[in-house]
Amino acid sequence: MSRIEKCGIKFNPYMENKRGNRKRKQRQYELRRMRRLSKRRKRVRHYKSRKKNKKEKEPGQLFQITAPSDFRLLTNTTECVNWFRLLRSLVLAAESPMGQKYQRIDLAGVEHIDFASTMVLGVICEELLEITPSCWCFGRLPKNPECAKYIKDSGFLNGMRDATGKPYSKSEGSESVKIQRGKTRLENEKVRSIVQIDRHACELLTGRNKVTYRHIDVIKEICGNAFVWSQAFNRQWVMGAKFENDKVVYVVLDLGKGILDTLARNYFDIIKDKLAQNSGVEILLGAFKRKYGSASEDDNRNRGLPFVEKTFKDGYIKDLSVLCNNVYLDFSDPTKNKIIAQDMHSAFDGTLYSWRIDASCFK
After folding, report:
1. Above 70 in pLDDT, residue 314?
2. Which end of the chain has the lower number of beta carbons within 10 A, N or C?
3. Taking phi first (over 0 means left), then psi (-120 to 50 degrees means alpha), and beta for anything else, what does residue 202 get?
4. 0.90 exceeded by the pTM?
5. Could you tell me the pLDDT band of residue 43, with boundaries at 50, 70 and 90?
């Protein structure tokens, strides 16, 4: 019989099985739904936990690079050179999923600074922005008001923006000339800019509208060597001048090969230097006396260095300093000449000249 009577109630077994299947499917659906909710809650808890931990850290802590408190390249040379090498290596830089890199620079603890450090830092920041993939640099200015004012007057912030996106006002306390992107000679426009800077310096220091071409010739000799032979990024060299009350500080810089890497020394010179135990200081001083040739084998090469030293001895420039590879030279006080690194892997990449002029330098 298809129908069965039980306890006076008639029921269909097929319909009863159908109801049981429906309830079983409903329980399975509820179980799957509860599992999904449980997994979702776990993901949310994990996300909130990561977000909370991230907030506990200082923003940018993972890729912050802190400048030394004595940020004077010509005084605290070794520490500053190591810091610049760390900055250029991008070891502490953060990278976005799209490949964009970011480097936070913390200058808040700087108590002493010089014009050479601001020039090198500015050139490195521009270099990192032009490499592939590019790296954006941002950070904090010194808390010391004198150092913060010095950075602003040096022109380091020209073309940069603050935290709100507003561009900094251009500094009137400094001027710069920059040659890059494969230029192989000093163009007339740049020469006119250098002449104008010297004219401005003379007017500021002496009150006269005059130009001393000896100053211009020094810059032309240095910069000509720099962008032809230094192999810097984009063959770039930079000349900056910072105007102060009674003096003007000049810095000429390239971040390519240093002078020591472009000298040509034959075996006799190398053996003689080793027998005399000549360090990099004596070798670099010999380059200024044109003791060695050039790796380019150009007869006119290295004639600019003796001219720079003669200009200093004749009194047209003062406080001449040269930082090149692992050697620092101070022509005003030879006792300060020193080796800043034991090998080229921790040396300064490039060549930096620094000098000052005052009213007595205009003859």
Report:
1. yes
2. N
3. alpha
4. no
5. low
